[in-house]
Design goal:
heterodimer; A: alpha/beta; B: seven-stranded antiparallel sheet; 20 strands; globular
Amino acid sequence: MPDVRIGVDTGGTFTDLVRFGADGISVHKVRSTPDDPSRAILDGLGDVATVGSGLDVVHGSTVATNAVLERRGARVALVATAGFEDVVRIGRQTRRSLYDLMQEDRQPLVDPALTVGCRERLAADGQSLIALEEEEIARIVARVAASGATAVAVCLLHSYRNPSHEERLAEALEAAGLIVSTSSRVLREYREYERWSTTIVDAYVTPIMATYLGALERRLAGDRVAVMQSNGGTISAGAAKAAAVRTILSGPAGGAVGARAVADAAGHARVISFDMGGTSTDVCLIDGGIPTTADTIVGDVPVRLPVIDIHSVGAGGGSIVYVDSGGALRVGPRSAGAVPGPVCYGTGTELTVTDANLLLGRLDPDQFLGGRMALDVDRARGVARELARRVELDEAALVEGVVRIANASMERAIRVVSVQRGFDPRDFALLAFGGVGGMHACAIAETLDIATVIVPRHAGVLSALGMLLADVVKDYALTILRAGDAVGAAELETLFAPLVERAARDLAAEGVAPDRTQIERRLDVRYVGQSYELTVPMAVEFRDEFDRRHARTYGYANPRRPIEVVTLRVVAVGRVEAPALPRVEAAPSVAEPYGVRDARFGGALTPTGFYRWTDLAVGAAGQGPAVIAGGEATVVVPPGFAFRLDPFANLIATRSAR
Amino acid sequence: MRIDPIAFEVFSNLFVSVAEEMGVTLCRTSFSPNIKERLDYSCAIYDAAGETIAQGDHMPVHLGAMPLSVRAAIDRGPMAPGDVVVLNDPFRGGTHLPDITMVSPVFLGSARRPAFYVANRAHHSDVGGMSPGSMPLAREIFQEGLIIPPVTLVRRGAMVEDVLAMILTNVRTPDEREGDLTAQIAANRVAERRLREIVAKYGARTVAAYAAAAQDHTERVLRATVAAIPDGAYAFEDRLDDDGFSPDPITIRVRITIAGDGAVVDFTGSDPQTTGGVNANFAITLSATLYAFRCLVREDVLYNAGIARVVQVVAPAGTIVNAVRPSAVAGGNVEASQRITDVVLGALARALPDRLPAASQGTMNNVTLGGRHPGTGRPFAYYETIGGGMGARPGRDGISGVHTHMSNTRNTPIEAIEHYLPVRVLRYAIREGSGGAGRWRGGDGIVREYEALTETDVTVLSDRRVGAPYGAQGGAPGQCGRNTLIRDGVETPLPGKVRLTLGPGDRLRIESPGGGGYGRAE
């Protein structure tokens, strides 16, 4: 294991670095350089280590995501089965909003003029109905080469069953010097629109990622560069260049991995992570392992690869408060963002959740961002008064209400990942991070009957920390669509064998030693006739487990109803020698506030202790109401909660017995 | 009780999340492609009087119709805790027969009357009748499938096996039906449990007060929207091509009177109900009208009973917009509903020409396929609808290849169709150039072509094959749709509404209409 391992998370404003070496963990932030993100990375690395000294750098970036969201990807040609060139344009033939007559059209990633129909056709069982002739291949290569496209997506019907036509096209296109993504390599699963869309995204981001990662590797010659993937694991930069679509949601994935590691160390295997930022909030339910889903949409483009199952809502600290035409008070989804920002920053004119927190006395206006930015309380109060007058409330009730409304949409998001998936939130701890997570977490925990809130010591760089701690993970899938009673355990073993073999080979290529390799086999199963599957571990009695999970998730099961095995999945994990989070044992002590100020809780002004996180020793404990600021996050501990600093310097808030 | 605007917003979130959680259970555990793939369902919660508190953003055509189901279930007689009432009778709370609705009461504590009702409606793949898929060209409702008046399917938590057997015996794919009915019951159970939790936490009186406040709020928002429309009377008419039996068009006429913050939408003067099944019952006319008004609201509001308080709908009995028993109605829900939307939006455009679009495709292009699997002899029944062109908007082209207005159902993946059915899809494409010209162009329709691999019974129920989707403010109409049979290489045009048998190798091509253009082309 190299001596120094560094997690680097490139965000819109800051690039976060977490360095782990013999001397423990250190954190560093530099301004991002959006025109060339690698510059900030290089600068930041230079600040904390010697570049080129054999560093182990794990990187998560938004390069691929932004390319899709801002439509700045490669000029992609699409080769599709003739007659089906418009499948991705039509999508699922639905409109995004039921009632919005003025809604915008979707913006395709592929220019329709760059779409080429290919004369070939496979049947559902993989048999060839129309053979793919050599002349047709030559015609397509010529058309694509003349089109000026830099990357090609090859998308044929039923290729998940028989990839041979796609392979032959790919071979010829690659020989002509084109970068090729085929749908059967990217995602060997049925449902043409989602598979093709994922493949197009891959082609769209591959050239950009290849250039970006290539430059990064050159600048970091002598170091080992790995990239965070959306599935919560890392792969080498070399492998990432060939599977760019897999890195598309690497930032949030790092956060979930970091949340799990912190929670695990703190003795909580079951947590709901709650990442509340300025404009949006991400929640993820971690039940021992980190759940993945294949139902992801980037902007308006489906990507059906395993992605950490994170639910996002458009509400955060910058969400704007307004009165609608029916006289109701609403919060979000419009956000003041960084510019103009909340009213108290001095430029914004519309009240935000952050303003409300300030007016409740839950932020120390002189200690914001470590005292580097003073907040304008009077300015915020003026706007709040005007709004309060319009809804006939007093100002105090209004601002407390704004926070309650924001919390209600957070609670709804948490219900989506817990109750809707068959979990009881009371069995979990709430792990809050992001800029404002700690200010809302206790109140949300109270409504959802959650006993414990954890705010990590490194709440401001949890994603970079997660990258540092992440394992190498590769996943593989193969749709088989077989009746459960027709496919026995022996046949499943045979079908799994090539996937497992490939997984082992790929992990070895990543430099993972066999004794650190762990290969899991899973089955996507449903009742014959359903369209949504549940994933169960491969085992002889997988049927029973499926019935159990169906009952838990949806409230009923029918053990007599025939089942269908839809997709085989292999997840290969190369466990890294993850650094242990530094742990300090200390005797309990009483936390000392730096000041006592009035803050509003439950309709009453209450003397509240204000603490500086960095002044608190491990083992320090206190009672709410309290505000702990000055660390990487601010934590509001309401009355009825106690708090303490655990051996990892995380802040743990617990509800006192009722 | 004083309504606190803060608690109001908290409760609105809770009410919507109940409807959403019902939808997740229904969609993920159902068996009909219509429910699980196409998402043709709706879920909602109701107050003690059966008025909607919140309905999920699911299917517009169910908007005004669902409360009438709850009403029909209540009118039938008292329900007990744990009961589920099932129905599909279009003249007692239903829309068309494949839409089966389940209504459950929610009792609190030892109360003798329900405090809430919950309901969901889902489009089943087959409910018997003269053709597979139960969307036939029928002359009377008895041919369209099994009619289920409001009856108790679950009594005090236990399935009434006799009723279930009665239903399953009358349909072509009973296993699938049983699975779907189970999923629907499970969805209602989710909502019952959630409402009970909410009441346990906040108290029954408070929850009821905020449910009423949610209805009042939606009413206020809609009143503000209607008040912004200039007072006056605005008339419009348009036609359905035919009813599948006679070549005569069927005219739907509307006159909308806006006075202050209220609207009267009067369909007097519309043609009498017809022989074929394009008749709309009152529930559908109400849904289509309320949908059009909901589109005028620019804010995100709960869909609930508040809307119906602002818009009064007059539809004479025995006409195409308020058909009476025993008329056939399979196409009312899917075709007449679209034309009713077209005329209501067309009339509103007289008042708001700068805000409303040209006509969208105005049909759902319903295709039902049925027969027996060649290998196993097992019956299959499959139904789908095809998107088309959206009408051009002031300032924006119409979108191509989407469902518009009263439907928003998804397509079924071709790889799924070909895996499960003896059918091959030969082409699925945008029908280039079919949108109407104009300053802003109408969206293009879709071309979808099928090949039968075995003897297949086909019903096509489509419109806008004769009368084109209108353009607005000088824009050109969209192109009409076209249905074509291709047998032994010979193309034969088919009518908009047709039933035929395809032999192996026969092909059916559906070209859906384009949307109308907006404004004169430069």
